[in-house]
C-alpha cells in the first residue's frame, strides 16, 4: 500500500489530492467497490489509518460503523467528500486535519 501507514478510499478527487502528498489510495464509485477496498486495506498490517470519504461511508453505514467498533488497526476515519453538500473546506485544510500536520506554504 504505502510507507506512511495511511490509505484513502474515496472519489477520484479526494484520492488524487492525497496522492499529491504521497498517500496511496483507490478511487471507488460504489458500495461494492468500497467493500472490496476495505477488505484489501484491512488485510495489510502496515496500514495504521484508512481514510474513507463520508459520502461513500454513508452508502454502507451499518458495515462501516461495525468495522469502526470491531477493528482497532487500521483505524477507519471518515473525511469529508471532495464534493460535499455543505461549504467545502480547502483541500489544504482537509489534509491538515486528516494528517494532524501543519502544512506551510
What does the model show?
The chain is 43% helix and 18% strand. It has a single domain (6-93), classed as Rossmann fold (3-Layer(aba) Sandwich). It is globular and about 40 Å long. The model has no long low-confidence stretch (mean pLDDT 85). The termini are far apart. The chain has helices at residues 12-19, 31-42, 54-59, 61-70, 91-99, and strands at 6-10, 24-27, 49-53, 75-79. With 105 residues, the protein is α/β, with parallel strands linked by helices.
What's the layout of helices and strands?
Elements: E1 6-10, H1 12-19, E2 24-27, H2 31-42, E3 49-53, H3 54-59, H4 61-70, E4 75-79, H5 91-99
Parallel strand pairs: 1-2, 1-3, 3-4
Average pLDDT rating: 85
Strand order of the largest sheet: 2-1-3-4
Can you tell me the CATH topology? Rossmann fold
Query: Any idea what the CATH superfamily is called?
Result: ATPase, V1 complex, subunit F
CATH class: Alpha Beta
Low-confidence parts lasting 5 or more residues at pLDDT below 50? none
Q: Kindly name the structural category.
A: alpha/beta
The main pleated sheet reads as:
4 strands, parallel
- Domain unit count: 1
Order of helices and strands: EHEHEHHEH
- Can you tell me the overall shape? globular
Number of strands: 4
Amino acid at each position: 500500500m504505502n510507507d506512511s501507514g495511511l490509505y484513502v478510499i474515496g472519489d477520484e478527487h479526494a484520492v488524487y489530492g492525497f496522492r499529491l502528498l504521497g498517500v496511496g489510495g483507490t478511487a471507488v464509485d460504489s458500495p461494492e467497490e468500497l467493500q472490496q477496498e476495505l477488505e484489501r486495506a484491512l488485510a495489510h498490517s502496515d496500514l495504521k489509518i484508512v481514510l474513507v470519504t463520508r459520502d461513500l461511508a454513508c452508502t454502507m453505514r451499518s458495515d462501516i460503523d461495525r468495522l469502526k467498533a470491531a477493528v482497532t488497526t487500521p483505524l477507519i476515519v471518515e473525511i469529508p467528500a471532495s464534493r460535499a453538500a455543505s461549504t467545502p473546506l480547502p483541500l489544504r485544510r482537509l489534509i491538515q486535519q486528516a494528517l494532524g500536520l501543519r502544512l506551510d506554504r
